[in-house]
Amino acid sequence: MKVLKYQLEDKHQENVDLKKNITQLCSRIDNFESLIKHLQASLEATQNQLLDTINDLNILKKNTNMEGLEIVDLKIPQLKCKGTFTGHNGPIWCMTVTSGLLISGSSDTTVKIWDLVTLKCKTVLQGHTGIVHTLAVCGNRLFSGSSDQTIRVWDLETYECLSVLTDHDNTVCALVVAAGHLFSGSYQHIRVFDLETYECVQSLKGHNHWVRALTVSGGYLYSGAYDVVKIWDLGNFECVHTIQGGCGSIYSLAVSNRRLLAGTYENTIVVLDLDNYQIIQKLGGHIGAVYTLAVSGQRFFSGSYDSTIKVWDLNSLICVQTLNRHTSSVESVVVHSGCLFSASADNSIKVWR
């Protein structure tokens, strides 16, 4: 009887182990299926963009009497992934680059400082108690904004926290430095801080939703929220123009060549003419919200929830490449010294060149 009992116990344990292995296998299959769906969606988006580009080229040939001309090679340099930063324990929401350093903020509540030569983490800044959504640099000072409703000021030489700004009563979504001030976007307003005293000297009001996007160009601050862009004079903090409607919920902004680029929750990039404030074009191709934009020379880059980065020609507004190496949404892209850096909810940062 004892032998039979031991045999039954062994069989029971084997069944438990088998069920555990099956559960682990099912989990891996689910993860694999999710990855396949991401890759399929990215491939479909790229194929659709390619078909649109070919159609545009055929129309161009027809309209310019170049029917006999064969366009063989556009001679556009293609970016390739050259490395990966790993070390965060959660999605990476923001990045900035300064003086040979890449700086990233994450859902793990930390800010990491990376060496751009070795791709290794030099130090970790701790103190926030919520997601680090945004970063900005001014000289040797770093500013980090968080869902803990604070902005922290860090010394980039000693890595010490110099000050904690507690004026916000909601998540700090966006930061930008200009004209001796720090501008921070949150729910319905933008706060303005003096860079010497860290005192809040102004609150810019007029938005009716989250101010998730801020950018500065030509003496003006551009702020994006739900279906509206406001343009503020950096000299007196007055709103000089409001672009209302046609954009949807704005998550990212960039300015180049008198054009304003707005990345939206509706999967498009809206291109606006800053001379007449009219929409020039809405760029499709992404199949998820466009969370981040960066401009470099005659190209600009867009990162999306669909896990891809698209490379666009600024003159033709045509997508010339789609980068597919991330496995989750792309939250931030920055350009520095000929390299593109992309941060993702897959907890990694990739380097492209």
TrEMBL record:
Q: Which residues form a coiled coil?
A: 1-63
Identify the Pfam families for this entry.
WD40
- Please name the SUPFAM superfamilies in this protein's record: WD40 repeat-like
- Nucleotide-binding in keyword set: no
Q: Keywords, A to Z?
A: Coiled coil, Repeat, WD repeat
Provide the leader sequence positions.
none
State if Repeat is listed as a keyword.
yes
The superkingdom listed in its UniProt entry is Eukaryota
Query: Where does the record place its WD repeats?
Result: 85-116, 125-164, 283-322, 323-353
Name of this protein: WD40 repeat-containing protein
Q: What organism is listed for this UniProt entry?
A: Cavenderia fasciculata
